[in-house]
UniProtKB/TrEMBL annotation:
Regions that span the bilayer: 63-81, 88-105, 125-149
Family matches, as InterPro entries: Transcription_regulator, YdjM-like
Protein name: Metal-dependent hydrolase
GO molecular function terms listed in the Swiss-Prot or TrEMBL record: hydrolase activity
Protein's UniProt keywords contain Transmembrane helix: yes
Source organism, top-level taxon: Bacteria
Entry keywords, A to Z: Hydrolase, Membrane, Transmembrane, Transmembrane helix
Pfam families: YdjM (PF04307)
């Protein structure tokens, strides 16, 4: 999840554990916020190339084993900072829970979180919530702010209510994803016949509109479904691909890395003497978050292309499509006839 969400969640968890103990409310919330954003500092590590930096984000710093080992030290520092050394055990529990909840909500996004290290490096990703979702973050932010600005007992209860509301919204996202997955699978079978795998993940900033990616023998298909659509018929755009390229360049390190990390939801196409390597899970056709230019002969380093940010086009489309208006994708693609 985004940094604001992580630091707010960290503050909220710290308030639950230490908010009623003597001491500065601001220090408790601020310390929890710092602990909540610590795991994401791994972004400063350079693993040698842009693809490695992507697939090795959310590794050791997000692993439950290492977080458990580190919690006693962080708890001691937190208690010292807040002048609450007598509540070290409470800070130990709070520090551990803050790190674990950070990893937990990251794992609910589609990116991939390797929380099983050092025992397994499987990138776990539920994909039921977008990396930024105001309806998850706002209850936390309101609860923590209420705690800081109001009388103790009332603010403490508001903070707990914020945590409960955010948790309920996260549960809702999983249920909504399962519902859309069933609809998407039926549509895929009817329109595409045999397919290899299917991905269902929310569009940005909401859990009403969902994006569906289906890998096929000919390439991949993309479709959108809103929970407010009047019909369960999904219009797919089919993007043709030469899948023999994946076999031809299967031994290239960047291709191997992304094939593993994306769980097969990637595209590979030739552009003159270079290859365009795309993670199909984040973004949409015409505007992907992770696209890399790869030299198959390793003469030049892998480079990452900037994401196309067409807010003037994308945001109005997102808003209307979210509420069930049957609009085509804002980017030109070939529609698959029913």
């Amino acid at each position: 999840m985004d940094s604001l969400t992580q630091l707010t969640l960290g503050a909220a968890v710290a308030v639950v554990a230490l908010g009623k103990q003597p001491g500065s409310k601001v220090r408790v919330a601020l310390t929890g916020a710092v602990l909540g954003t610590l795991p994401d500092l791994d972004v400063i590590i350079d693993y040698g190339d842009v693809v490695s930096n992507m697939v090795l984000h959310r590794t050791e710093s997000h692993a439950l084993f290492y977080q458990t080992l580190l919690s006693p030290l962080l708890a001691w520092l937190a208690a010292l900072c807040c002048k609450q050394q007598q509540y070290y055990l409470r800070w130990l529990l709070a520090s551990w829970l803050i790190l674990l909840t950070h990893t937990g909500i990251d794992a609910m996004t589609v990116y991939g979180t390797q929380f099983g290290l050092p025992f397994t490096n499987t990138p776990f990703a539920v994909g039921s919530i977008f990396i930024i979702d105001p309806l998850y973050t706002l209850p936390l932010l309101i609860g923590v702010s209420w705690f800081l600005l109001s009388r103790l007992n009332r603010g403490y209860r508001a903070n707990i209510a914020g945590l409960l509301l955010s948790s309920a919204y996260m549960l809702w996202s999983v249920l909504a994803q399962q519902h859309v997955s069933n609809i998407a699978a039926q549509n895929a079978q009817q329109q595409l016949g045999d397919y290899q795998r299917i991905l269902v993940t929310p569009a940005p900033l909401n859990t009403l509109l969902w994006r569906i990616v289906i890998m096929t023998e000919q390439g991949y298909a993309e479709g959108f479904y809103s929970l407010l659509d009047e019909t369960q018929q999904i219009s797919f755009s089919l993007i043709q691909q030469d899948n023999t390229l994946k076999q031809q360049y299967a031994t290239l390190k960047p291709v191997q890395q992304l094939q593993w990390f994306s769980r097969g939801f990637y595209a590979l196409e030739r552009q003159e003497d270079k290859l365009l390597l795309t993670d199909l899970r984040m973004g949409q056709q015409g505007s992907y978050a992770f696209q890399f230019v790869v030299d198959p002969l390793n003469r030049t380093a892998v480079t990452q292309l900037p994401m196309r940010r067409d807010s003037a086009v994308a945001l109005p489309w997102l808003w209307q499509r979210m509420w069930g208006t049957p609009l085509p994708s804002p980017y030109t693609v070939v529609q698959l006839s029913h």
